[in-house]
Model the fold of this input.
Amino acid sequence: MKSTKAGHWIFWLSIIGIVAVAIIGLTAMKTPSDQIQGDTTGNATGSAENLVGLAPADISQSQLDTAATNEPFAYQLATAVNENRLASNFIWTLICGFLVMFMQAGFALAETGFCRAKHAGHTMFMNFMIYALGMLGFYICGFALMMGGVGLVGVSNLGGLAQLNKEFTIGGWGLFGYKGFFLSGSSYDVSVAVMFLFQMVFMDTTATVPTGAMAERWKTLPFIIYGLFVGAIIYPIFGNWVWGGGWLSQLGTKAGLGVGYVDFAGSGVVHAIGGWTALAGAIVLGPRLGKFNKDKTPNAIPGHSLILGALGVFILAFGWFGFNPGSTLGASFSGNLRIGMVALTTMLSCAASSLTSMAYTWMKNGKPDFGMTLNGMLAGLVAITAPSGFVSPQWAIVIGGVAGVWVCFAVWFVENKLHVDDPVGAIAVHGFNGALGQLCVGLFADGTMNYNGLVVKGLFYGDAKQLLAQVIGMVVAFVWAFGIGFVFFKILDKTIGMRVSPEAELAGLDIPEIGAPGYGQELMPA
Amino acid sequence: MKKVEAIIRPDKLGSVKAAIAAVGYGGLTITQVQGHGKQKGVKEMYRGVEYTVDVLQKVKIEIVVPDADVEKIIDAVVGAGRTGSVGDGKIFISDIRDAVRVRTGERGDKAL
Done:
């Protein structure tokens, strides 16, 4: 078997990358003493001062100042309390981040189950590699672009992250960060490590969405390049605008639109971006052979394992307990006791959505459609992701119930009106229901939360401007992800080609692309 | 009556089924099979060691038809299943002594 040029390129570029990182590790780790240092032991992170104004203790600055001079032991105890506050926040964020990492397995199983057996190995391979590729793109520059300026707004739950203090602005509107490339210098820091891990697993959730919509006909090399690009550019730029202190989050303070566009755990930042990128990719790639007839009517191409699909969706539902509740970035003070409520809204929404999608398909087809029901559960999870920290259990069920039917419509719409082939329903689940989630914040947020001062109200609770901020976020997410995705995939198509040959597609991508079948190894010669 | 056993490429199943339906037949049996012909398969690598993939996926269609239809069925399978490349498959024709429809007990060509 002869190796191809692509293999040589990838191997030597990887070596160059590793060497570059080694050079950075040797030369770029010192921070000038007049700048904020990274804390590598954890002993310099946080102080008693962090407790000032934090609910429910509500210690005032003057109380703290008095203690500093008159009651040194009390002051030291306050420092210890803050240390425990940070520790519980670190534990919470990390454990939830690990759960979200496990969602990679969920996506892998769900997507592979919805594809045909002859492509199973390659579909799994893409879902497997996206973890490393997205992470490295995020490591190189994605994290810096997304979070490089977040220290300017402060992340109290994790100790401030003050060293992430570079945000590029125009007229005061934040566009992207530029600190923390390769996690060098002051980013060698215990809090940055937690933030990077947590943000990275969210980025990879976005990254893995297009692999489903583009399965069964995507060449491996353009997929690899995409994996790096989505973690380096597509996800982080929009992420900066919402969670990095950028302009969408500033729509409140600078334009009077509620509290600005908010997205608790990322219906917009993660799922809509993933879904609209997937739409761009599926359009550029074109439909699978045999999917559409000459008159554009679609043919069903059933997946090969509802069992794997269902297992994958269950793993996703489990991992979502890290996705939504973890987005407080903490478990103590600052309204973080709401984490149980966030988990509750998450589970209620997906129960409602799986029920309504099952019922809808049962009504339309005479039998419940399990595949559509699986998409239905995911739709509820996606749709509740943005509102999960801001709505009541009742609205969670309503949102999920709507999402379960909305996804059925979206699947039909994408296939029959847009004439786009999406083997797993990724565009319907993540794009259409991501947008629904963004919208629902602006409708149902009820102002009963208080995350260190963040109180969100939607239209039904008196703030119509919040709805406007959310709609702006919906439109921007589509324009950004679909726009840059389309341009990027078109460039890939024109240069190296996006699609496998028809012979490879008909034979199944497993042997042509990765040289091994997903199934049937036991019949290989001993 | 004759049995027509056609081993074809899996991705040609749809067009071959359509082609023989146009000729007309009583019923068909489809099995997923693996194997190879004269060319003995392809070479791949597994964890650093080369091996031969000579167990290739194919589909076998078996139908039993009256003698008069055999050539038409063969033409239909070849027409729809041929790509011109190695791996197109083979058709075997065998004699069938008798056939019985289980539901009614009919025998011979009436059972097809």
User: Anything to note?
Assistant: Chain A has a mean pLDDT of 96. Residues 72-114 of chain A form the longest helix (43 residues). Strands of chain A lie at 167-170, 173-177. The radius of gyration of chain A is 24 Å.
